[in-house]
What does this fold into?
Amino acid sequence: MRDLNQLVSLEPTGVAAPGYEYLLVRGVPAARLDALIPLFDLRFDDDERRVVFPVRETGKDLGYTARAIDSNERKRWLSHPVEGGHKTVIYEPDRVLAGGDTLFIVEGPFDAVMVTAAMQPGNDSVATAFFGSLPTVEQLAYITAAIPLFRMVYVMLDANVYGRCRRLAQELALVTGAPNLGSINIGIENRDPGATRFEELEALVEFASASWQTEIRWMWERRLVFTGGGKE
It folds into this structure.
């Protein structure tokens, strides 16, 4: 894998066009994608055919993680320079520690970018990731420091580990004594935030950004959003 400075910025034309098109296919509107590219410094590895998510802290490059755009690629994620080497930091720590309205904590950078894309203009919220579902002590220290900086903090891991997701939120609330910690069960039909239909992810993010609930079960709450609360 090449160093970050050898990789081109994501854009709709040229060698990076396949990566740009991949995110469009995933549902991100072009106008929002164009804003996300400089925000996250998204890049493309044309050799590996991967969308690249740089990992930084206080402006220092720590490397990157990259997602394959081809469905037949056996290994979806690769990390550089060390496989799994970003577990000492969370994704976009500088943005997280600047605070905001709602903090969404997801598993991977792709999920974090998709959640950010789903935020309506003017929504002062932030999405970060653990680079997996099992946070390290160092990563939890970042979250603990960030909790007072947000109105609400939601742990929103993949659907298949919701029990772990809820326990993590409860344990963080117990240890910190913070009342603004909660969990989001996205529903097994959605699998993970990045795989959720974009219009539904928009609705979920908007709902959570106005919620004070400590547990959001989206399979139930979505009925309030899409049907006005009527019974099926």
